[in-house]
Amino acid sequence: MAEHDTGQERTEEPTQKRLEDARKKGQIPRSRELNTFMVVMAGVVGCGVFGPHMTEVMIRTMTVNLRLEREDLFHSAALLEHSLTALVDSLQLLAPLLVLMVIVALASPVLLGGWLFSWESLQPKFNKLNPLEGFKRMFALRGGVELVKSMLKVLLLGLVTAILLKASKPELLQLVNRDLEVALVSALEFLWWAVLLLGASLLLLAGIDVPYQLWDHRRKLKMTLQEIKDEMKESEGRPEVKSKIRQIQQQRAQQRMMDEVPKADVVVTNPTHFAVALRYEQSRGRAPKVVAKGTDFIAAQIRNKAVAAGVPLLAAPPLARALYYSTELEQEIPEGLYLAVAQVLAYVYQLKAARNTKERPVPPRDFPIPEEFLSRQS
Prior knowledge:
Layout: H1 16-24, H2 32-66, H3 70-73, H4 76-107, H5 110-113, H6 119-122, H7 131-138, H8 141-174, H9 180-220, H10 225-236, H11 239-260, E1 266-269, E2 274-279, E3 289-295, H12 296-309, E4 313-315, H13 317-326, H14 338-353, H15 371-375
Parallel strand pairs: 1-4
Antiparallel strand pairs: 1-2, 2-3
Helix pairs in contact: 2-4, 2-9, 8-9
C-alpha cells in the first residue's frame, strides 16, 4: 500500500479488477467444513452403493483368515499367501470407496470458489516461516474463528457420538452372541448410520462456515478511497501516457494519410497555408473523396509528396479552405462543391491530355462556392 494510504480505513467494496487480481493470486473463498461434509457424504453414499459388495468381500476375507489350518501357522509360504490374498481383498474392498471420496475431495472446492489453478499461489512464501508472523496469525481474527470452529466441531461430533452409542448400546452388546455374518452385517449397518448422522451434523457447521468465508474474503479485499482513485487512474491511464499514445496514433494516421497522396488526382492549395488532396474513382460513379488534408507544415509535406509523385497542384484558395473545413478524411465532398471540383478535375484531365503537346490549358480562376461554405472559414 502507498504511504498516503496508511491510516485510511478500508470501507469501500472491492472493484471487479481487485477481485480478478485476487483470483489470479489464488485468493478465493474456501470452506474446510463444506469440503469435509462433502467427503463424509460421499463416503456415506459410497457405502450405500458399494455396501453389499463390500460386505461380501469382508465376510470372505475374515472367513478365510480366521479359519487357518494348523499346518499353515507354521508354514511361511502359506502365511505369505494368506497375507497377499487379504491385501488384495482389502484393496478390492476399499478401492471404489476411496476413488469416489478422492474425486469428491477434489471437486467440492469448486462449489464455493470455482475452479482455479494459480502458479502464484504455489510459489513459496518465506514470510510464513517467521515465528512472529505465525503468532500474529494465531491471535488474529481468523485464528480465533478457526479455534472456535474446532471446539464446536469436537463438541458437536462428541455429543452426536455419545447419543448414538447410548441409544445403540443394547444392540451393539448383542453382536457378540450372533453369527459372524449376521454380526458383521449389523456392525456395518450401524457404522453407516453413525457416519450418516455425523455427516449431517457437519452440515450445521458448513452452513455457518460458508457465509463466514464469503464475508471474510470480501472483507479482506475491501479498499480505501485512495486505492480506488489510484486504480481508476491506472485503468484510465495516466495523462502523460495517454498523451504519448495519442501522439503515436496521430503520427501513424498522418503517415497513412501521406501514403494516399501519390494516389490522388489533384492537390488543391491555398497556395501555402492549406492543401487538400482529392481522388476521383470514375469507375465507381461516386463523388470525389478527400484522401489527405492539412495546414502549414502538413500542407507543405502534402505538396512536396504530390510534386515528387507527379500529382498536379492547383492554387484555389477559397476552394481549398472550403474543402478543408467541410470534408473529413476519406469522405466524399459535399454536394455544394460538386461544380467547383468538377472544374478542377476537368483541368486535370486537360493537363493529362496535353502532356505530349506544347499547349497548356488555362487553370480555372472563378469557382462557384456557396456562401455557406465560405462562412465556415471565418
